[in-house]
Structures
1.
Amino acid sequence: MVVLLLIAGMSVFPAYSGKAAALTKPPLTKEDCVKCHPGPPADIATAGGKHRYVPCMGCHAGHPPTVKKPIPQCSKCHLKTRKAHYELRDCLTCHKNPHTPLIISLAGTEACKNCHAQQIAQLRDNKSKHSALNCSTCHSVHRQVPQCTQCHKPHGGELAAAECNKCHKAHMPKVVTYADDIPSKDCGTCHRQAFDLLNSGLAKHKTLACAFCHKARHRMVPKCQDCHGTPHPAAMIAKFKKCGDCHSIAHNLS
């Protein structure tokens, strides 16, 4: 009788211990995941952005067959930020691989405007040929800024590609502005006659940079009185209403 009980106990104990082992099964770790999935951890380390700080199980709640849908929606985390960008549908249109969210495939202007509203407004409000282009025409890769000479020839051989943005802003290229310290030789690339006349003259204007008179905006022509006031008697001013009647032009004073 005692032997039979012992045998029965031995037959029950293994089954019970198996269930207990199943209940105490340790959770999966990154070391477990990488045994079958070496690619995603390597991708995240390369271009994962803030995903680098999230463990595998932070997104994937489990593994089939225990969990039927191990791949979560992006909105699980990103809608909580309440930013317009994260309210866009179809995140994978631009972010093809959630393990490399920094590698972005540009889909078009609609997706771009949520983060780059200022640039879109500049294109819309300052019409040029650039306004008709999709963002991805120039920015084939996110955050890539192409050189202007990729499409445009420089005004002259002396200008390098990096100098285009001294006067032209890519999203409103027709609104030409420049800093006060822009070299006059850069202006001379397009305005050669004025530049040569100024440099061959003897007047004090020769010592001034083009930007000193044509301040900060292309085609802005100042009045002589802005600097010189009215140095002549009223009778002379009444007879010769324009300074150029006597002094030719500012670049070649007589």
2.
Amino acid sequence: MKKLYICAFITLMSICISGIFSVDTHSNSNGAPAGSAGAPNDPANGCARSGCHSGGTTPRAGLINSNIPAAGYIPGQTYSFTISITEAGISKWGFQASPQSSTGALLGSIILTNINETRFAAGGGNKYITHTTAGNSGSTGSKSWSFDWTAPAIGSGLVTFYANVNASNGNGSSNGDQIFNGSVSYQEASGVGFETVSSSTFEIFPNPSNAGYFVVKGVSAGVHQVNVFDVQGKLVLSQQQAVEMQTISTNGLEKGVYFVSVEGEQSRTVKKLIIQ
């Protein structure tokens, strides 16, 4: 009888261990292995591969969104990113993203803003961001993950963000999952890296603003261009400023977050503006 209990215990433990490794292998519930962002120089080159997920890879526009202006990123500035997916009937998700140069080097710094749902991929340093176990579940039909990114040093040039998103069928295996991929490239803004307007002298007020205007104060001597971008990087307002303080109307702008760029001949500084 004792031997029978031992055999039953061993069998039960084998089933449990097998189940643990099956989930870990097929669903990658605690994040995708490093190198799975789908970049050309990634060693894994995506998620739809042998031993990971089957079902093929489909390009999907709009996976990656940021508030980097259309004019490009400013070295040293921090921007917000969102990886988002919509796919009917899916409630289990996964992703990996990475900002890289044309040679595959990490450009800039990824900043985790939700450690409950995102983490750095194991073995990849801080080059790849992926989901956690808590971050692979979401509302049926859609999922998003957010993080910040600090732009690299002056002269880094073009940066491309790559992302792979897994819309899992939740069957505990690698079969039948859908992998979607996308990439977005951002140029380094021209005219930066010379004489930057000091943040201590350049002010925006009231901020938040609900008065129908905002004031740009503390701009150095000379003619400057004041450009306002929405969170999608679209230029929504532009005017010249040749005085130290100038009032700018926000009529026609909807409530939300905007980015005000003050640009001189050899300077460019961006600040966030909230319109209520």
3.
Amino acid sequence: MDKKGVLDLYCGAGGMSLGFQSVDIFNVVAGVDVWEDALKTYENNHSWKSIQADLSSEQPQNLSVSKEDIQIVTGGPPCKGFSLAGERNESDDRNQLVSRYIDYVEYFNPEVAVMENVVGIKSMDLPEYSNGNVVDYIYERYEDIGYTIDHKTLQANNFGIPQTRSRVFFIAVREDIGTPLFPSETTPNEVQSVESVLDQDFDNYANHDKTNHSEDMVDRISQLDYKESVYDSYSEAWKRLHPEEPAPTIKENHGAPFVHPFEDRVGTPRECAAIQSFPNNYEFKCSKSSTLKQIGNAVPPKLASHVAQAVKTIY
């Protein structure tokens, strides 16, 4: 079978691309994003084309990517307006990027399109979408352009990733190709704990920059039991990880995504990337705060690989 060319839209630091490239029948052609920092990381770790473009306004024919080279379109449109964490904003312009993503699918007419988003998208109602429901709109758009569409919420920890990260995946398959398929969950003994990932030497890898805490902060951290936060019981930030359990969802959390289970400090970007399932030699570029954002926004590569394996079985 000839390799299937992949176009990764809203590629960020490259988690989705890395996952699809790991499956033998896929070959990433290009990644596209507007965020310069993330593209620097993307270019540093991948040999294929990276394109800086604002997909909310850029026309697909201007991407310098041939339609004939693309059989798979992937992407995770920015989703802050859909998020269940914090206030949801129906007027957030980023909500329109789901529509733009499908515009690109319509133009490239791939055999399969894979879109990842936060779970909150399933309950978001926007007046300009169909009867108000975003999922209904997505289904109607895909069906109108000749695709069979299905979606499923995937929990990262059910796929050997030590993190309770839930994301919804929409898989659309062109009607002449087949029907959507999703990956099966791993068996319990394959599920990793935080300790299994953090119990390694990161000192010789990039992005392992430990925070220089004040003495007062070190003292406060030292008093934390597992799953306790420096702030309050409801905060996921500055919470000490339990070594035998998965981490909460990795996100920026103002430079302190979690407190290390065994050391009196917050986790490093390298440790966050490991929990996200990035390989240790995957080097993130730009500032520490930017790196944490890139890691927190990324699709876990191992989860993307499981999704890619399911897409492979469609053929």
